[in-house]
Write a structure and sequence with these properties.
alpha/beta; 9 helices; six-stranded antiparallel beta sheet; Rossmann fold; six-stranded mixed beta sheet; globular; single chain; 36% helix
Amino acid sequence: MTKLVLSELTLSHFRSHKRAVVPLDPRPMAIFGPNGAGKTNLLEAVSLLSPGRGLRRAGADDLARRPEALGWKVTAHLQSLHQTHELETWAEAGSARQLRIDGKTAPQVALGRVARILWLVPSMDRLWIEGADGRRRFLDRATLSFEPTHAEAVLTYEKAMRERNRLLKDMVRDAHWYTAIEAQMAEAGAAIQRNRATAIAELTAAQEAAATAFPTATLALTASEPIPDDLQTALADNRSRDMAAGRTLLGPHRADLDAIYADKGVPAKDCSTGEQKALLISLILANGRALARDFGAPPILLLDEVAAHLDATRRAALYDEICSLGAQAFMTGTGAELFAELGARAQYAEVTDADGQSIVTQKDKP
């Protein structure tokens, strides 16, 4: 099978890591150690090798090690579809994040052409019971994994919407100010809707085609108000109502991801904590299977505290599925015993804290 593999990861002044050089092989990596030692920081560094702000959505300055605040850098060697790339992303103090691929400056969207990275973090455990914003971000991350240009469509739409909202708040009534902005929103909005629908179809097909120990979720894209096909006309017709509200009330920014535990017919929001976690894992695995087929290699998986709320049987099933998929997965947990079922199928690293500095020690076994 074609692999998507990080062969080395280097962190410099990143979060709690003053310097860490981590050689890697294609096997999953189990990372264990006490809370606060810096395990999640390793996963966050890897997440920055994909478009966007990473798994914590942090600003560039927030990633710098304290108290030095000198800036930070993450470097990695990536084997992708029979090619090797050197990826470098960094930020100087007070400056925006920058990126080089193979020594050449590149936009973040270019990362989506050489790598696919998916993640599951504890904050997502409440995905089904909190607001729609988090579910949209979850869906858009999945959508981005299938269509790297999705990020550009979202950014274009959001920028145009901010301009429109400013006009609405200023009570500007002249239609000429709105026409070009609404046309831009309609074009980008159509791409967003189309890309999201494709992602849901891909996830659904990947779930249905797999024999898995994790539950299947029936997915649907919903909205408080239907999003019309002719969004430009709808936005023009809605200006008075939007002006009264001071914001745009119609469009893909109001969409939501609806999920139902298929076997039980129960909405995800009404499932138990363990069932909600299992549904999330099921979607991440489905995303991975779909990408293995479409991209040509399984994605890199970042699974923070993934064993939480999983019993030993389901934990072992998860590890079996990751290994069967052939994905390089980075998994964290507080104790080595959480990864016992992996045995020699994984590589291991212990992260400890020494005087406020994270130390990564690689091990042959847990």
